[in-house]
Amino acid sequence: MKRLIEANVLLKNIINKFGCKPFIEVGNTYEYLDKIIAEAQTAFDIDKVLDQIEDYGKYKGVLMCDDEKCERYIPVSMAKQIVRGKGLGGVLGYLEKEIPSTHICDINK
Fold it and tell me: Which of 9, 61, 73, 91 has its CA 20 to 30 A from that of 29?
């Protein structure tokens, strides 16, 4: 199961559990875990997803009118595709390129 976590909450929980700011050995040096978490690649950008949904509705949405009010709608299938793109393809880029999968490795090897 894939899931999102709040990085700041994760770090706070680790600090509370161990009572200090944790660090790990990276090669011949040590790195604080908060720096590594802050530099981690974004897995899902909700603001960009919402921007992409709005842009799709604005430029390609289906215009539907009810009495005097008109709004643009997008198909559910397109909204799903935008959400699956995680907001990482750029504005309207969610249709143009594949998002690379993340690389997972064991840092203790």
Answer: 9
Strands 62-66 and 69-73: antiparallel
pLDDT in tens, 42-93: 778 888 888 888 888 888 888 888 888 888 888 888 888 888 888 776 555 5
Strand, coil or helix: what is 52? helix
The tokens of 42 are what? 């974004």
Q: Facing residues of 62 across strands? A: 73
**8 Å CB contact between 70 and 63:** yes
Q: Report CA dihedral (53, 57, 58, 60) to the nearest 10 degrees.
A: 120
Q: Which SS3 state, helix, strand or coil, does residue 92 take?
A: coil
**What kind and span of H or E run contains 38?**
helix 33-38
Each residue's pLDDT tens digit, 3-45: 777 888 888 888 888 887 777 777 777 778 878 888 887 778 8
pTM: 0.54
